[in-house]
Amino acid sequence: METPRIARPRTVGRPCSVASALALVGEKWALLAVREILLGNRRFDAIARNTGAPRDILTTRLRALEAAGILERRPYQDRPPRFEYHLTPPGRALQPVLQTLAAWGDRWVEAPPPVVFRHEDHALDAVLICRECGEEVAPGSVRPHRHAPGWSAAGPLAQ
Which of 3, 86, 92, 123 lies 20 to 30 A from 64 at CA? Predict the structure, then answer.
């Protein structure tokens, strides 16, 4: 069964999954909102407090994430109407991305780590494992083997 896709954003430059993903979630407040929802903070006030985002900007980011299919609003109160934010499957799939980004920050920026992720009763390290051979993927050992039509590794092909 094929994985359903969310709407592909328009990007400029090289066709690239990184560029497409960043067009949807690459803004600071967007990823921090996803972090908060992953941590169980689903109400606007908690997301605003815990991210430090200006309320107007956070509102805009949450609406964009909803429009992209990364999260959805669900009512939790009728009078006055109030909503919680819940991640969709594509939104929940951002968890390892955030854990990997946090691991990078723990190694290169923060000391000691402000949050430690755990799996069962032990610390969890974010690593890439090759599905084919089962080995850990070291930085610098990965090379692209497929390019978008009209592009090479160096850039656009001459027309």
Answer: 3
